[in-house]
Specification:
Blueprint lengths: L1 E5 L3 H12 L3 E6 L2 H8 L5 E4 L5 H6 L7 E4 L4 H13 L5 E6 L16 E4 H13 L4 E7 L4 E7 L20 E8 L2 E3 L12 E7 H11 L3
Length: about 220
């Protein structure tokens, strides 16, 4: 797989290193010559000094031939521009964008060319909430430009799902249970699995079905 990473900072370089170790063809684009010169000594991938917000730069870098673009700069405006250009000008199949400020999360959707957005602050917040919240629906990750979420619910004693088999839950068509964690063990979501108080239930659901999932698992 060929991946272009726009932004050679610590985040972009870490992603590039991991993908390189996994055997992928990695290209990193950064507009700061000193950053490129310094980083290329430590990481043996293709480095290009260019402004990833300019169509001509992306064209010269061969963006039309990549499978995935990662917009990983420290500026949300730049990441949105990069995502839009990658999708509309070069028809890149998959565009992943970094969200630096949670308040901008709502912008990172398909209208800006974003297939998947990743917000480190938002993810950390979700992990904290997941660790301390029982009986609440927590969003962990979002996909397809924000239209689909991976959510988690730790079942409270009063949950209407406690004591019921997965096959008996009236989940919407837009939702699918992907895993259940019972007593620190991951359980495959088979129809006969009976949910219990304290179980962690992970569900992949679209925005349209989220309210129903909350009603089924939380009871709100």
């Amino acid at each position: 797989m060929k991946v272009a990473i726009c932004g050679g900072g610590s985040v972009g370089t870490t992603i590039a290193g991991d993908l390189h170790l996994s055997g992928h063809d990695v290209l990193v684009i950064d507009k700061e010559p000193d950053v490129v010169e310094r980083r290329r000594r430590d990481l043996d991938v293709t480095w290009i000094t260019a402004d990833a917000c300019e169509v001509s730069s992306l064209d010269a870098a061969g963006l039309a031939s990549v499978d995935v673009v990662v917009a990983a700069t420290g500026d949300d405006e730049d990441n949105l521009v990069i995502s839009l250009l990658a999708k509309q000008e070069f028809a890149v199949p998959r565009v992943v964008a970094r969200v630096n400020h949670s308040k901008n999360q709502w912008l990172f959707n398909e209208s800006w060319g974003v297939d998947i957005s990743v917000s480190t602050p938002g993810f950390i917040t979700a992990i904290v909430e997941e660790a301390v919240s029982v009986g609440s629906l927590i969003r962990l990750l979002q996909f397809e430009g924000g239209a689909t979420h991976l959510v988690e619910v730790t079942l409270a004693p009063e949950s209407p799902a406690a004591g019921r088999a997965l096959s008996d839950l009236e989940l919407p068509r837009e939702a699918a249970v992907v895993a259940v964690v019972q007593e620190d063990h991951v359980v495959a979501p088979r129809d006969e699995v009976v949910l219990r108080e304290g179980d962690e239930v992970l569900v992949l659901v679209s925005q349209d079905g989220e309210a129903v999932v909350r009603q089924v698992l939380v009871g709100e």
